[in-house]
Amino acid sequence: MSAAAVTLCFLLREGENGAEVLLGLKQTGFGKGKIVGIGGHVEPGESDAEAVIREVLEETAVVLRQEDLADAGTVRFVFPARPEWNMATRLFTARTWNGEPTASDEILPEWFSVSSLPVDRMWQDADHWLPVVLEGGRVNVVVTMHTDNESVASSESLLD
């Protein structure tokens, strides 16, 4: 079964106490109640960059341009117990944008310190790859979930 094409963008800024990242509390749908990255599904005919720009605008009212995006790699999520949930996720970071993050029906955006991510409120895979991305690195990871669809069975880094 093929994996859904998904994109995420992590907006980064310097806060009073160091680097901060914009994440959001998911209000509806897949992952409801979890703190997640901003993004979503790639629509037919869209590039990954076009999709993430649209999703960030829809979810937070922040305007990104393609030249604002930095490629941060990929994470492939495998759900053996729910293969319809499998996702091929393209990651981006951005340090430049227009507008202030605003809540939408789907996401309540919030800035978090990069040094103390709310991993207890996120998908359990986040601490396997997100710190590398937030430090400016690139990842190419396959995360396989346990049959509970919550905990991580394995996380494997692939060579680029």
Written account of the structure:
- The chain has 160 residues and is mainly beta.
- It has one domain (4-157): Nucleoside Triphosphate Pyrophosphohydrolase.
- The protein contains 2 helices and 9 strands.
- It has helices at residues 48-60, 126-134, and strands spanning 4-15, 18-26, 35-36, 38-41, 69-78, 87-94, 107-113, 139-145, 152-157.
- Strands 1, 2, 3, 4, 5, 6, 7, 8 and 9 form a 9-stranded mixed beta sheet that branches.
- The protein is globular.
Structure in a nutshell:
With about 160 residues, this protein is mostly beta strands.
List the helices and strands and how they pair.
Layout: E1 4-15, E2 18-26, E3 35-36, E4 38-41, H1 48-60, E5 69-78, E6 87-94, E7 107-113, H2 126-134, E8 139-145, E9 152-157
Parallel strand pairs: 1-6, 5-8
Antiparallel strand pairs: 1-2, 1-4, 2-3, 2-7, 5-6, 8-9
Structural class: mainly beta
How many structurally independent domains?
1
Distance between the termini: 23 Å
Note the beta-strand portion.
Answer: 35-45%
Report on the biggest sheet: 9 strands, mixed
CATH superfamily: Nucleoside Triphosphate Pyrophosphohydrolase
State the total count of DSSP E strands: 9
Q: List low-confidence stretches.
A: none
Tell me the number of helical segments per DSSP (H or I, 4 or more residues long): 2
| CATH fold title | Nucleoside Triphosphate Pyrophosphohydrolase
* Silhouette: globular
CATH architecture assignment name: Alpha-Beta Complex
User: Using only CA atoms, what is the Rg?
Assistant: 15 Å
Mean pLDDT: 94
Helix share bin = 10-25%
Text of the CATH class? Alpha Beta
Order of helices and strands: EEEEHEEEHEE
